[in-house]
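ok so for the tutorial part 2 we go from a plain amino acid sequence to predicted structure tokens. step 1 is just haveing the sequence, like this:
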Amino acid sequence: MASYRKVKNLSREDAAYIAGLIDGEGTLSLSRRHRGENRQFVISISNTEARLLNYVFRSVGAGRITRKRISKSNHTPSGTYAIDNRQALDLLRQITPYLRTYKAKRAKLVLDHYLRLTPRNGKYTAAQKKARAAFATKFLLMNPRRPATLRLDDP
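step 2 — the prediction. this is what the tokens look like for a chain of 155 residues:
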């Protein structure tokens, strides 16, 4: 059986710094690994500074760093730190008090509902599928780049 890394307890300073990175360079998203699968919660940070991504990885103690392929000679090498599912939730609990953008609302929504709507065995009842779809729609609409007619009025 696979052993999973545990998310470390972050100092207040590290939690605030990582939250700032996520607010500026990162994403809180629901992503599919394969077509037809349910969306999984993912936190990611993309940057051209490998040292910065390594710092986040070492501080958190879980996740992964992937290097991006350079398609043109004038592009700077970059990478992405990503952590998903329950490990991402553990990280999110620590950094949420420090988020300042729309991502704070996304974080609250995820922390309030994601576990309840995501059975460990991946088997959903019809009611769970409907509730999960409504959750995903609400989450994805929490984006400042969406048209003004789609804005949610939730505080």
